[in-house]
Amino acid sequence: MNLNVGQVIEHVVRKDHMGITELSRKLHVSRRTIYNWFDQESLSFDVICKIGNVINHDFSKEFPDDFARLQDEAREKKLDLMSNEENAMANYSTAVNYWMNKYIKLLEKYNELLSQSFPKQYNEIGSDK
């Protein structure tokens, strides 16, 4: 006999000896909502996890496919985030190099103008070193 998701959760909750009233209080839902969840053939993964957190139960044993899918999604998101971070760092590095080169060229032009405008003073300053 195949049990639906609600029945599996009800079995675990009742085996945990936590009362429905206490569970509903901790989840901030009505007792009627809990009973409705027990009658459902499927529940959102968030609801399953919230119930598991409250009763301190790992539902990955009862729903291995859902948890495996969640792990795959999390792994994909992590890879996307890492890729985005690498792109951001590359863009940042490119921007830093661009402005650094622009600043160096500006300093070189400034020094050239100084040497043309004040050749004697500029050469004396340069020869002190």
Give an overview of the whole structure.
- It contains 6 helices and no strands.
- The chain is mainly α and 129 residues long.
- It folds into 2 domains: 5-62, Orthogonal Bundle (434 Repressor (Amino-terminal Domain)); 68-127, no CATH class.
- It is rod-shaped and about 95 Å long.
- The protein starts with a helix and ends with a helix.
What are the defining features of this structure?
0% strand; 434 Repressor (Amino-terminal Domain); 129 residues; mainly alpha; 6 helices
Task: Set down the secondary structure blueprint.
Layout: H1 5-15, H2 20-27, H3 31-39, H4 45-55, H5 64-117, H6 119-127
Helix pairs in contact: 1-3, 2-3, 5-6
Helix/strand-derived category reads mainly alpha
- The gyration radius over C-alpha positions equals 33 Å
Count of DSSP-assigned helices: 6
Q: Major β-sheet, in short? A: none
Q: How do the SSEs run, as a string of H and E?
A: HHHHHH
Q: Identify low-pLDDT runs.
A: none
